[in-house]
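PT: before anyone asks, these are the final sequences, not the draft ones from last week. 750 residues across everything. Please model them as a single complex and drop the result in this thread when it's through.
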Amino acid sequence: MKFKADEIASVIKEEISRYQAELDVAEVGQVLEVGDGVARVFGLANAMAGEMLQFESGAVGLVFNLEETAIGAVVLGGYLDIKAGDEVRTTGRLLSVPVGDALVGRVVDPLGRPLDGRGPIQSPHRRPLEVIAPGIAERQPVNEPLQTGVKAIDSMIPIGRGQRELIIGDRKTGKTAIAVDTILNQRGTGVICVYVAIGQKESTVATIVETLRKHDALDYSIVVSAGASDPAPLQYIAPYAGCAMAEYFVYEHGRATLCVYDDLSKQAQAYRQLSLLLRRPPGREAYPGDVFYLHSRLLERACKLAELRIITTRNAPPDTKAGVNCKVYKGEQDAAALQADYAALSNKDQHEIRRVPASGGSLTALPVIETLEGEVSAYIPTNVISITDGQIYLEPDLFFAGVRPAVNAGISVSRVGGKAQVPLMKRVAGSLRLDLAAFRELEAFAQLGTELDAATQRALDRGRAMVELLKQPQYEPMPVVDQVLSIHAGTRGFLDDLPLDRIRAFEQQLLKHYRDEFPEVRDEVAAAQALSDDLENRLREIVRNFKSAFAAQQDG
Amino acid sequence: MIEILKGIDVADVYAAALFALAQEAERIDDFGDELGELAELHAREPGFAAFMTSSAVDTDARRKSLERMFRRRLSDLVLNTLHVMNEHGRAGLVPQLSRAYALRVEDARGQIEVTATSAVGLDAAQRAEVARVAERLARKQPLVEYVVDPGLIGGLVLEIGDHRFDYSVRRQLRTAHERLRERGERGLPIGAEP
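LR: through. Structure below.
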C-alpha cells in the first residue's frame, strides 16, 4: 500500500479543524506492584470487573479482582515497561477486538494486531471479547452438516453446523491434523474458519499457516495466535478473541463459521497461572473454582441461530426484510405457521418463502484438549467433555499402528450431528461405528489364538477391511459423495476378500472409475435424499463389475 | 508515595480506633500532629525506621525502647496505639497510620485533599477560583495543594481523590495524538465516522 502525503495531510487538517479543547476526566489509580503479567492497582474505587485499564506505559489491562482498597488486574502484552507508582486510568469500556472482512486471510494476536507483516488491519468494526451466549429463543436445532472431509469422522461421528465437538487425545495423535483438514475441506462452502492457537510453538503455528496458504485455505480463514512465549493473559483471552471475530460473520452476515481452539488445556493452564498470581484460592489440580465457567461460557457461544423467514413476492429485492403479511417466522417454532400461511395464499406462484439475510448463521466449535497418558478423567478433559456435544477420541496405540486418523470409534460420539448427516451417508454407514467397536473387542479375543467360527472370521475380515478403508492421508479431505461411494463398497462387503495392502488402491481406482464412467450416478448420489433399492442395486452392480476388472488387472 | 499505600488498609483499622478515642478525648488535632511528627521521624531517621520495621528487634525489646523514647513526649493514647501495633507485629506501619488517621480526620470534617497542578504559579485570585471550582466538583471543603509543573505547557490539572480533571495542553496534545493514531488504524477514508 502506498501512502499519499496529501491524503494524510487532509485527515490531519480535518482533525484539527474539528478539534476542540475537551476536559479530560478520568479515574486515576497507581500501580502498587507488578510482575508475571498481573498488577495490583491502588485506588480506582469505581472500576468494574472486566473493565479495560490504560497503563501509563501504553499497556492495556483487564480488571480481575476487586478488593477493598486495591484492584487486581492482568496486563495484556508487555508488562515489563510498567513500574510501581505508574498511573492507571479506567476507560469505562470492555475489552474488544477489531473484526470484519479485513481480518480474513490474516494472522493476528488476541488483540487483533497483525503478526504476519502484511500491514495494519483497518477495520471499522469492533466486537466485545466477552458476550453472553444467545438464549433458547435465538437458536434452532442443528440441521446442516459440517463436512470435515475425513471419512472416519463424517461417516461415524458426523458434525453439524453449530455443534461443539471436542477433539481429544494425547500429544502427537493427530488432533491438529483433523482440525486443519476440516478447515481445508471448507473451501468453496462459504464457511469462515478461525484457527486459534493457544500456547503453541511459533514454529508449529507458522507451519499451519503455511499449510493453509498452500491449500488456498487462508482466503477464508483467520489465524489468532497466542504463542508459548506470549504472556498468560494473552493466552487466556485468545479463544474469546477468535470467537468474537467469528461472531461478526454469524450475527452481521448470517454466515456459517468454524472455530478451532487449539488447545483449551493450555488456556486453562494460563488461566490457572493468572488466578494463582492474583491469589484466588486453588481448587482441584490447583485450577481456580471457576475454570468450568471459563470453558462453558466460551463453548456456549457456539450456536445455530434461528433462521428468520418471510413470505415475499418473487420479484422483491434480495435484501427485503419485511414479508407481505408483515410477519417474520422464527426458526423451528414458527415453521408450521409459515407453511400454513403460505398454503393459505391465493396467489402462491407469485410468492416465495425466503430467509432474512443475516439470520440463521452458525458457529461450529472444535475445541482441542490434550490429555496426559490417555487420562480422560482428569479435571479439564472431564469438564470439556461434559460441555461439548460429543468428542473425537484419538489414541496413540492406533496412531502408531498406522491407523490414521487414529479415531477410536468405540468412545467417540457425536450427540447432535446425526440429525445433520447426509441421508445417504446415514444409510450407508449406519451401524459402522458400533461394528467397528465390536470388531476391536473381537480382535482382542481372536489374539488368544482359538479356532474361530466362520461368522466371527467374517466379522474380523470386514472389520480389518473397514479399518483399512477409513485410513486417510493428511491434507487430503474427501468430498462427501466419494466418501459415501467408498464406504458403500466397504459396508456391502466388497473389500472383505481383498488383501489389506490393496484396499487403498482399490478405493482410489473405484472412485476414479465412478468419476470417469458414471458421473451421472455420482450426481444422483450427491442429490439423493434416500437410498432407493434401484440405486442400491446399480451401485452394487458397478462395484461388482469394477472388482472383477480390478482382480483381472492385478493378476495380469 | 507508593510505599505508603502498601498496608494502609491494615493501618486504617488502628487509625479508626485511635480516631474514635481522639473524638472522645476531644484531642483530634493533637493526635494528628503527634502522628505527623512520628511519620516525619520515620522518613527522616533511617535508624528509627529500621528499628520499627526490622524483625531483628523483638517485640519486648521494642516495647521497652518505645516506652523509654516516647513516654511523656507523646500522648498516652498514641503511645498505647504504638504498643498495640507492636504486639501485633505492625510497628512498621507508622507512616501508614499517620496517613490513614489524617484521611479519617478529613473525612469526618467533610474535607478532601485536592492537588492543583499548573504550568506557572497561580496568583491569589486564581487560587480562590481554583478552590471554588474544586469545592463545586467535590462537594466537600477542598484542602488545595498547589503544584507547578512546566511540563503541562498550559492549563490546569485538578486531582480530587481518585478523579483527575485534566485541562492541560499536554493532555490535549496527547488526546489529539491518540486520535490520529486510532484514525490510522481504522483506515484513511475521510469523513467516515466510527
